[in-house]
Specification:
The protein is an all-alpha fold. The chain has two domains: about 55 residues, no CATH class; about 130 residues, Multiheme cytochrome fold, CATH 1.10.3820. The protein is elongated, with a radius of gyration of 24 Å. It starts with a helix and ends in a 31-residue tail after the last helix.
C-alpha cells in the first residue's frame, strides 16, 4: 500500500508541476479534465489512502510504545510473571503481539476504534506539545467489555467456577476484571526495574 501511495503522491506532484510550467495545457477540455484529476481527485485519493495507512499503523504495538511515556508499558509486556495479565496475554499470543495494545484497549462498539484513535491523537499531541499525564490513565477506566470481547464464550472462562458465580456482575461491568484479588496486576510500570524479564528465544 505504501508503494501505491508514494506513486500517487509523485504523480500528483508531477502533474501539478506540469500545469504550473505549462498552464496552456488546460486550454482544451482534455487538459481541464486532467487538471481536475490532478488538483482534486488525486489529492483526495492520497489523503484517503494516507489516513487509512496511518490508521492501520496506529494499531501496531511498536507504534504505541514509540512514545517516550509509553516505553515502560512496552517493557511491562515482557515481565516474566503469570500474575501480570498484559504480559501473559502478549507472551502467549492470546492477543496478536503486533497489535497487542490495540487488541486489549479498543472499545468494541460501532465507533469504538475511531473514538480510541482520536483519544490516541490527543495523547500524541500531549507528547510533543505539552506534558503527558503521569501516571497515564484511561478515561472512564478499563471496561470489562474489552476482556469479555475475547473471553466471553471461551470454555475455560465460562466453566471457571469463580467466573460463573459472578458472571452477571462481570457482564454488567458492576465488578471490574481488575478488581483486587482477581486480575489486579496489569502494567506494573513503577516496579518494572525490579521485575524478572522474559527474553524471547531463551
Amino acid at each position: 500500500m505504501t508503494g501505491i501511495l508514494v506513486a500517487l503522491i509523485v504523480l500528483t506532484i508531477v502533474l501539478v508541476a506540469a500545469f504550473l510550467v505549462r498552464p496552456t495545457i488546460t486550454a482544451r477540455i482534455e487538459g481541464k479534465i486532467l487538471a481536475f484529476a490532478a488538483l482534486c481527485v488525486l489529492p483526495a485519493l492520497c489523503i484517503a489512502m494516507g489516513m487509512s495507512f496511518h490508521m492501520q499503523r496506529s494499531e501496531q504495538t511498536k507504534f504505541c510504545i514509540s512514545c517516550h511515556s509509553m516505553e515502560a508499558y512496552g517493557k511491562s509486556l515482557y515481565i516474566d510473571d503469570a500474575k501480570h495479565i498484559p504480559a501473559q496475554h502478549f507472551q502467549n499470543h492470546r492477543v496478536p503481539p503486533d497489535t497487542a495494545c490495540y487488541s486489549c484497549h479498543t472499545d468494541y462498539t460501532i465507533f469504538g476504534p475511531f473514538k480510541d484513535k482520536l483519544a490516541g491523537v490527543k495523547r500524541i499531541y500531549l507528547q510533543y506539545v505539552s506534558t503527558p499525564p503521569n501516571p497515564i490513565t484511561i478515561p472512564g477506566g478499563f471496561k470489562n467489555a474489552q476482556c469479555l470481547h475475547c473471553h466471553l464464550g471461551a470454555r475455560a472462562f465460562q466453566e471457571n467456577p469463580v467466573h460463573a458465580s459472578i458472571m452477571d456482575t462481570l457482564t454488567s461491568n458492576q465488578m471490574s476484571c481488575l478488581t483486587s484479588g482477581c486480575h489486579d496486576t496489569a502494567h506494573d510500570v513503577t516496579n518494572i526495574s525490579h521485575e524478572k524479564v522474559w527474553k524471547p528465544g531463551t
